[in-house]
């Protein structure tokens, strides 16, 4: 064909776009193939080339993917015959494409439209997408956050309005896009909108990592674990709603305990002076302090040159760690870990907490961790993933739990941060367990990342559907090419030149691998790049007073 952009029935057709489709008539059927590569043969040198030769040597490499029955106009995957030599190749028209790409129905929902023909919708199979895991990858600014927002908006709009979708939102980007269809829980909100991840649901080691950070004094750590085990056991004995053998409780069992009382006890041991070193009755306490208010107990200073008061048996054994723990407990950024506290006579507090994470009556829940230090947010996210997976694992298929009776989809923004080898141990294990085993128990994963290279190969291999936006880094492109089926690796060559919100979608949820424009979200997420307009139009110097006031407010 002469030229590459013919106009047919009023529409412009781009011939030979990588990712576009062609039709090859074969008797009663039309074979359909994807264009994988466009080339000019290298067998002729420039000097020998004539215009005619160049025309002759132009080539498309295509991958046969299916056939359309001319009678019924139905498309089916796979081909029954192969083209012969010199068979003509046609571009596909809108009506060909309509019979290839299924419309939204009770099983599929709209994701966007074909790049080569915006009138043809691209739909995704909801069940395959959710249960078989999926990944959305793309360099920064390629449109990942907007893509997730529009997919979720379309999904709910098209009828899946009682779903359990949990969006882990480390940067607070999704609230504006999803607030009509989601419950938004955030770390600094008040009341029911506050995101809560109780510290007592964590093993002792992680609790210390959150509140003390770094490497706490070893003696302190051992004593902390010992006291936690004791406190969890005592709670188990008392609690009416818990049916657990108190002697089987360890420092890791997720049973409530009061961390402030434990701090107060250890801190007092670290400061205690006594008249007689081995007689606790002779402690020289001047002020008992208050555990609830994090006020330390005070003691008389020890006497000079062996004079009483003497140092208590554990005086200064724990170094600065008790003080670091106190400061951690006072830190407003970590307050969301301190709620709810357990009440042995009340109800299981984890029931309310997990109901909140699942969004209550809303189909989506956004867990906004913005404002929390990365390392701490990562641990909290690990706890959420771990508990959700454990609940799904233990839910009966015909019960009222989550997982097999009602699948959960976890949307994991910045997935490389939680799945990679460098992630916190608890978080890495929880995220990888969902990637590996989630589909068996009805926990789906939608991993969103700008660094696919940093995802473990096993996690990417578990993703049945891959939505690849523009990728500019060659290592990331290599990872995605390796993850794509052999039939579409040619298409992957266009990854660096995709336009914003244009993607290659392949895998279980699509009929065929396609190059598509994903829909615009409405409303948009908080993903707009800041504008430089104020640099031209606003001559006043910035005033940060209000910002400082509201920042300080969180320390009240
Ligand atoms: N469907 C779309 N139509 C038009 N513009 C879009 C679309 N999707 C995204 N954009 C624009 O592209 C820009 C980047 O989008 P977005 O923040 O979603 O990308 P991202 O990959 O999540 O970026 P980052 O990794 O930096 O968070 C935004 O300014 C947005 O307005």
UniProtKB/TrEMBL annotation:
Residues 270-322, 521-543 are annotated as: Disordered. It comes from the Archaea. Residues 130-472 form the AAA+ ATPase domain. Pfam families: DUF87, HerA_C. Keywords: ATP-binding, DNA-binding, Helicase, Hydrolase, Isomerase, Nucleotide-binding. It catalyses: ATP + H2O = ADP + phosphate + H(+); Couples ATP hydrolysis with the unwinding of duplex DNA by translocating in the 3'-5' direction. One of its GO terms (molecular function) is 5'-3' DNA helicase activity. Gene3D superfamilies: P-loop containing nucleotide triphosphate hydrolases. Belongs to the HerA family. This is ATPase AAA. It comes from Natrialba asiatica (strain ATCC 700177 / DSM 12278 / JCM 9576 / FERM P-10747 / NBRC 102637 / 172P1).
